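Running log. JK asked me to keep both predictions on one page so they can be read side by side. First protein, sequence followed by its tokens:
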Amino acid sequence: MAQRDAKKAYQSRMQQQERLAIRYLKIGQSSQCPYYKGIKIIFQNYKKMFASQKLQLEEVNQEKGIPFSLSDKHEKDVSGEYFPNERIAVRCENIPKRTNIAYLCLFNNSEWIPVDWAEIKDDTARFEHMDWRNIVYLVGYYKEGRIIPAAPPILTTEMAKHTISARPNMQKKNKMRLERKYTEAPIIIFLRDLLLDGRFQGSNSPDFKNTIDMHVITQRPPGSYLTVKLDTVYKFRYVRFLARDGIRSDISEVEFYSPSDSVNPLKGIPMGNPPVDGDNSHRMEMAFDGDPLTCYASANLNNAWVGLDFGKKTEINKIRFAPRGDDNSVREGDEYELKYLSMDGWVSLGRQTARTYFLEFSGGPDKALYLLSNLTRGREERPFTYENDTQVWW
């Protein structure tokens, strides 16, 4: 009786997890999250089972060792229930001796994770029940605990239902301008747009009478810090960022600089509107704490602003600011490395320390799959291709 109740409770939990995973798939996030509560949900959908499942891979694999991601005997492949007709055949290259298995892999921020396998027959691996929703796959061999490419990366397109081989064209090289290392969610773009028509103003009156606009944001700012060098040296005691009417003053960082110190921002006493909903995590001090992952958000929707009182008239010749974001945009002062994927693995195109909100690399092969890593901070990374002077995320 107790065993039957335990089995029922276990199955109930697994069914709930599967429903959550299916929901996650339906909202179009599969290319961002290879795992969700222990269930693999890209391309191969696995359901946790109470009873041990037979691992066919162990029977057909001629080599020792099975990838950890495919070794759970309590997982059952249910991909056929969601993608019954989608399939792909991949011609394998440089097949090692005694190798008869190829693995279909997904990238999980740091490495390729096997999510399915197929026997190699006539130099070809055939995978079934594919998820085609604009995903990058890598077919590889499992050797000594790591994945070795068996073919160039495969890009799938949902609309056309066909694959594109991301084989680097070494005869054609790209000059690339890169602004991010990870895909940008729509909410991040929305937060950047909130700053449009915002004004950086100065005054010598605490109520900001007779204000002067030092700078107006006329186009969507980048996702990281933007430096504005002013044409005039202003002298104010009070400065502020004023949002356009009808929206909150919602900004991550605001910095003002003097001609005598271009490195350290001016210090002052924060002033402005109270934070939205009285939330201290969005109080005015957050706009001046030097952390782009915190932010100020005002309660006001009109005349919404945040600023500083320097205590005396102070010269200003530069402004630096950052919208709210995820800190995955290129950040001035951080070191980055750009790599592309070859048949021998990731190949470095060099390292750079960012001098502004973007990086420029030359010599990247056309049609390649790239990865930009921040060597200073952060862990989120996504592969991308470079098409029509734009990063296309996979």
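And the second, directly underneath as requested:
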Amino acid sequence: MIGMIGRSRSRAVATLLAAALGASGCIPLEPAVSKDGRFAFSNANGHLIVTDPIAPGATRVTARLVTREGYSPTFSPDGRRLAYAGEPTRDEKKAARGAGEARAAIFIADADGSNRKPVLFSQGKILRLRWSPDGRRMAYLAEKKAAAGAGPELFVLRVLDLETGRSEDALEPCGWFFDWAPDGSSIAALKLPLGAPAGLATVKAVAPGADSESRCIATILGHVLSQVVWDPGGASVRVLGLDPELPRVGDIELEGTPRAVVSAPLGGTPTARLLGMDVSFFAPSPDGRFDLEFGGLIYERDSTYRLVVRRRSNGTAVLDRPDVSPWVLPAWLSAREAIFRIPVEEPTFAIANVETGAVRNLVVEVAKPRAPAPVFRNPDGALEVRTAGAGSLLVEGEDVRVEASGGRIRAEVAAGRLRAPDRPEAPEVGFRALALEADGARARLRLSGAEIPLGPFTLRAPAAELEVDLATE
């Protein structure tokens, strides 16, 4: 639950922002839906998963594990590419100029998550991505460390030009949510009071560029997690904030305070519709006819929360589910279908048709990734075995022979050495002969005449075995 702000302001502020940054809690990450019906989401372990296109009426769909550390997926407007944030590998940092000790990166891959390439490295956390409608830019939320003693971290809205690779600040400090205008001319975001997570906040329309010009659309009573979305028609911005009738000064109590959706037209007077106390997330349907309302943005893992879908014209509820899992936020699969996670053992979602009221379960079957076959690294016959835990194992010898059949790999190496290039502290093992068998996700190596240096000593073993998990990404 969103904690109280004001009565214990410094502690609550730190807790709220730490949760947003993933330090002591977690905000359920938003999924992404592609033009052709692919669904991308992060599960409870932080694994990024992408499904095949979900067919109409489907109750099962095959999915692929993209990476074990990926979040904030977003599909390109044409549905052909997937972008997400994650931690770069050592090899990716080595191959990039100026990556240094980057902690995070933005990756762009094919729509199914394969063939990823880093397009931006960052020393700080990258928290949220959104592709521009023209596919040429990427807006993202970056962490900016505050000066010592100046309060918690700030969120900065930045825009990356995917053609030039140049990234520029657009708004600071910024709330968690932001949204591109349908025509791509500007980004709607919430500019917060400096050093405060709640209070009078300005809804801005920021035009990305060298000058990052912005205009004020409205002033609302909001907080760091107030949601900001453009209406599908582009004539107004809608913000999920606090009850606008609350006193504008003094302590603001988030727990137990009614929320309100404020509609701010680009020219005109903002209007507010009061919601329940527990509504923490909403999403208009692609055609603007329905509103999805969800309770429980900062959550307890074993709890369930309520999902309500209403007709925007009269507020009538067409769907009311009290048993929705909070890990993955609900989303619109199409203008008529909403998808949401339900709390069962296997990765199961439900898809609701808001016109007919019909609900069906969708089981996501994550295919077990096939371990990549060992490959020759150079003409001299070095063999690389990519492992899940220790990086690569490099086998070099006088004679390397490899046979592959039906997904099974066999290799024999004479008079060589075994080393882990990614782990320089690991000893280099010499051998008289090595036999390798790989099948599925594991590989077994048998060494004859092994010699392992241990400080000033050398351990000699007539026979030794090594079993490793192969890489599955």
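Observation for JK regarding the second prediction: Confidence is low (pLDDT under 50) at residues 1-26, 374-379.
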